[in-house]
Amino acid sequence: MIGESFIFALLNVAFVLVISPFFMMVIKKVKARVQGRQGPHLLQGYYNLAKLFRKETLYSEYAGCISRIAPYAALSILLVAAIMVPLFWIPEQELVTANIIVFLYLLVAGRLLIALLGLDAASTFGGMGSSREMSLSAIIEPVTVVVFAALVYVTGSFSIHDIFRTATTIFPAYNPTVLLLSVPLFILIIVETGRVPVDNPETHLELTMVHEGMLLDTSGRNLALFELSHAVKQTLLMAILLNIIVPAGIALELSVGALILGGVLFLLKGTVLCVIIGLFESAYAKMRFFQIPNLFMIAFFFSILTIFIEVML
Amino acid sequence: MILNDVAPVWIRICLILVLVSGGFLLSSRSLKNLVRTYQFQSFLLVLIALGLVVLEEHTILLLVAALTVVSKVWGIPACIRLIQERIHIQQDLKFSYLRPPGALMLSILIILLVYITFAQILEKLYAASSLFFLGSVIGVSLVLMGLLAVCIRRMAISKVIGYLSMENGVLAFGLFVTELPFFIEFVIVIDLIILVLLTSIMTVGIDSSIEEYKSRLEEFHLLSEEGGIA
Amino acid sequence: MIAVLYPVVAMVILLLQLLLRTHRSLSLLGVIHPVISLIITLYFIVSPGIWDDSPFFLIDHMSLFVMLTTSIIFAAAALYAVGYIDGLVRSGDLEKRSLRIFYFGFSFLLAATTMAIFTPNIALFWICAELTTVLSAVLIAILALRATIDASLKYIFICSTSMLFSFIGIIFLFEAVRNKTGVGSLLWTEIVDEAAGLDSGMVFIAFVFFFIGFAAKSGIVPFHTWLPLAHAKAPSAVSAVLSGAILNIGMYGILRMTGIMKETGVFGQVSVLLIVFAMITISVACLSMLRQKKLKTLIAFSSIENMGFILLGIGIGSPVALFWALFHMLSHSCIKAGLFFSAGILHRQYKVPTRTGEDEIGDLLLLQPFAAVTVMAGCAALIGMPLFPLFLSKVGILLAAAAISVWIPAIVLLLFACAGVALLRFYLPVMAVRFPAGEGPVPYTAPLSMKVPIVLLLLLSIMIGTVMIPGEEAFLAAAVADLGFGVQL
C-alpha cells in the first residue's frame, strides 16, 4: 500500500516534470507556424531550463526573503498538487487524499506567492503585474469554483481520483453534461495559464503584461523554477480536462505495459490539446483588460447550465 | 431496438446544445458567427425532429425536418448573408441596456425561473422527466433568450437573428406536441420568410441615406422601372 | 357558403391590382374592395338564416360585428386615400412607383384582417394576425423616410416577438384540450365547449402567453411603445386603419380567449390580470397625453387609452361590461379614424412634422375651417361628450366596474379628466396662433374625397350615440353570448 503510493507519487511527479516543458514548446511551435515562422525546436524548453539553471541569480537590493523562498515554494506547492492529479495511471484505491478543493487552494497559494514576489522586488512593473493578477483572479475565482462544483456535481465526488474513475466509466458522447463541462474547463486552462485572450505569455510589453510583469525581476535559477512551475500548472489543468473528456487508454492497474501505453497516449492527447490551444491563441487577439469578464462569463454560463441540466434530466 | 434507446438521449443532447447556441447568440460579436450559430441551432432542431420520428413514429415530423432544412438551415441564412455582404458590416459591437456578460447571467436566471414555474404548474400532469416538460422548459427559455438578444442588440440585422432564434424556440416546443397539424408549421415558416425579407430590406435602408436606399432597392430588383413590386 | 365571397372578392381585387396600371383604377379598386366587404357583412347581419356551419368560416354575431367595424373603417380610409394619396404623389412625398405597393398592401391587409376575423382556427387566426402586422409595417414604411422605416421596424419587432409568445400559448391550449379529451383541438367553438374541465394551471399559462402577443397587437402598456411612433409616422389613411381596425384584431383575440377562460377555474385570476393591465394602460396613456405636442401622437396615445378601457370592460367580465366594451370598440374606431383623417388634412396644409419636430399650426380657422371643426368634434367625442357614443359606453363600463370596486371608476374618471385636459391644452392654444401677415402657407384645398369620409364617420358616430338602431341591442347581446358569457342583461 505504502509502496504503491510511493511509486504512484514518484511516477506521477516525474512524468509531470518531464513532459511539461515539452507541452509549452508544442504550443509555441504551433503559434510560430501559424504566424509563418519556423518556431523553436521542440526540446528548446529543456535547453532553456538548463541554461537558466546555470546562470547567476541576482536579487534586487530591496528584495526580502520572499524573493528567495518563493521560487522553491511555488514549485513544491505545484508538485504537491501534481501528486493529486493522476496523469496516466489511476490506482485502484485512492492512495493520496486528492480533494479537489485542496487542489484549488494549492493553485491559489501558488498564485499568491508569485503576486507577493512581484511586490517584493519593489519595482513598478512587478507591482503592476501583481495588482492585475490579483484583480483577475478575484473575478475568475468564483467561476473556477462553479466549474469545479459542476464537475463535482456531475461525478458525485470531491476526490479527483474518484472523478477520474467515474469518467472512465461514462462514454462522454452519451453524457451531455461532460461535453458541456469541457468548454469551461478549456477556458479555465486559458485563463489560469495566462494565454492569449487574457494575457500574452510571450510579451514584455508594459501595457498588457500580467504574468511576465511579476517575474520581470527574477533571474537565473529562480526564473527557471518559475517557468517550470508554470508549465507544471498547465499540464495539471490539461490533465483534468483530458482525463475527463477522453479517458480512453488510461492505465487502471499497475503493470508496465499499461503504464507505458497510458503514458504514450497521454503524451499524444496532450500534444493534440496543445495544438488546439495554440490554434485558439492564434485565432484570437488579446482582449482589452475590461473585456476579460466576458470570457469568464461564458465559462460561468456553461458550468451553471451543466448543473441545471444535471438537475433537470 | 437500439434506436429507441438512443433516441431520448439523442434528443436531450440536442436540446442542451440548443440552449448553448442560445447563449452564443447572446454573446457573439461577429455577425458571421451569429448566422452560423443560427444555422447550427436550426440543424439541431432537425436532429431533434428526426429523433422524435424514431421515438413516436410520426412521419409528419419528417416533413417538418425537411422544411426546416430547406428554410432555416439553407434559405434564411443565405438571405441574411447576402444582406450582410451588402451592408459591409462585420461586427456588432453596439448593445443597449445590457452587455453580453450580464445577458448571459440573466439568461441563467431565466432558465431557472422557467424551470421552477413550469415544474410547479405542470407537475400534476407530467413527470419531471417527460419530453414534453423538457421541451416546454427549453423552448420557452430559448424564446426568452432570443427576446433578450432582440432587446440588447442595436443593429436591426442582429435583432432579426434574435427573432429567428425565438421562433426556433417555439418550434422546439411545438415539436413535442406532435399532433399539432403540420400545415401550421408550414404557414409559420412562410410568415417567417416574409418577415425576414421585409426586415432585411428595411435594414438595408436604415443604415443609408434615402437616395442610396432607393438605389439599393433597385439592386435587389424590388422596384421595377414603371412602378409596382416585381 | 356566401362567406366564400370574401376571399373570392379579395383575390379578384388583388389580381386586378397587379394587372391594371393607372393610378385612378388602382384607387378605385381600393375603394370597391372594402365597400363590397361592407355590403356582404350587412347582408349577413340582416339575414341570420344563411349562416351555415361551413368548416372554413366562423360566422357568428361576434365575428360579424368586428367585421362590420373593420369594413366601415377600411371603406372610409380607402375613400379618403383617393384624394390623400393623390396629393402625396403630386407633392412628391410618395414615389409614383410605390403606388402599387401601397394599394396592393392595403387590399391585402383588408383580406388578411377578414380572414383573421372569420377563421375558426386559433392557429390560423394567429397567422393572419401576424400577416396584418407585416402588411401594416409595409404601409407604415411606404414613404421610405428614415423615420418611417424606423417606426415600421420597431412595430415589426415588438409585435412579432410578442406574437411568438402567443403561439406558445396556443400550443399550451392545444395540449390542455388534448389532456382532457385525448384529441387536441384548435377550433374556437370546440375549445369553448370543452373549456369547463381543462387543467387550470395549463390554461392559465396559455392565457398569459396568449395575452402578451395580442396585448402588444392592440397597444396595451407595457407593450405599447411602438404605437405612438407607428401611428404618428404613418400616412394618415394608414394611421386610421391601424387605429380603427388593426388594434381591434388584438382585442378580438383577447375577447375570444377570455370567453374560453370564463368556464375554467382561473377566470378570477384572468379577470384581475386584465383589470390590472387595463388600469396601467389607461394611466400611462392619459398621463403621457399631457405632454404631447404633436396632434397625431396625441391621438395615438388616446388610442392606447381607449384600448385600455375596452380591456377594462373585458376584465370585468360581466355581460353588461362586455356589451359596452363591444359598443366602445365600434364607436372608438369610427371617431378615431375620423380624427386621423382630419389630422391628415392638417398635415397636408402645414407639412407637419416640420424640421423642429413640433407642429407649426397657425391661422387654423382661416386656412382649414373644415378640419378645425372636425378635429374639435372628434376631440369632444373622445372626451366623451353626450351625443357621441363614447359617452354611453364609458358610463356603462364604469357603472359595471363599480360593482367590483368603487375605486376603479373613481380613478378612471380622474384619468379621463387628464386626457380631456390634454386634448384641450393642445387644441385651444393652436387655435389662437396667428401667422404674421403674408408669412402663412398657401391654403390647401382638400379634395372632396377627403372630406366625405370624415363627415360620414362623424354622422355615423352621432347616430349610434343617439339612436338605438333596431336590433342593435339584441345583436350585441348575442355577440356577448357567442363569446361564452351569459346573456342576461
Secondary structure elements and pairings:
The complex is a heterotrimer of chains A (313), B (230) and C (489).
Chain A: H1 2-34, H2 44-54, H3 65-84, H4 100-120, H5 124-155, H6 160-169, H7 176-192, H8 211-214, H9 220-245, H10 256-283, H11 292-312
Helix pairs in contact in A: 1-3, 1-9, 1-10, 2-9, 3-4, 3-9, 4-5, 5-7, 5-11, 6-9, 7-9, 7-11, 9-10
Chain B: H1 2-27, H2 31-56, H3 60-87, H4 100-122, H5 131-152, H6 156-176, H7 182-206, H8 210-219
Chain C: H1 5-19, H2 23-46, H3 61-90, H4 99-118, H5 122-140, H6 146-181, H7 188-194, H8 200-217, H9 226-233, H10 236-263, H11 267-289, H12 295-316, H13 319-350, H14 364-367, H15 369-383, H16 389-402, H17 407-432, H18 448-466, H19 472-483
Helix pairs in contact in C: 1-2, 1-4, 2-3, 2-4, 3-4, 3-10, 3-13, 3-18, 3-19, 4-5, 4-10, 5-6, 5-10, 6-8, 6-9, 7-10, 8-10, 9-10, 9-12, 10-12, 10-13, 11-12, 11-17, 12-13, 12-16, 13-15, 13-16, 13-18, 13-19, 15-17, 15-18, 16-17, 16-18
Number of domains of chain A: 1
Distance between the ends of chain A: 40 Å
Q: What Rg of chain B do the Cα atoms give?
A: 19 Å
Quaternary organisation: heterotrimer
| Count of DSSP-assigned helices of chain B | 8
| Rg of Cα set of chain A | 19 Å
Tell me the greatest interface: B-C, 49 and 48 residues
Uncertain residue ranges of chain B: 220-230
Number of helical segments with 4 or more residues of chain A: 11
Query: What share of residues of chain B is helical?
Result: over 70%
- Tell me the structural class of chain B: mainly alpha
Low-confidence stretches of chain A: none
Total separate domains of chain B: 1
Major sheet of chain B: size, sense and barrel closure? none
- Outline type of chain A: globular
**Rough outline of chain B:** globular
Largest sheet report of chain A: none
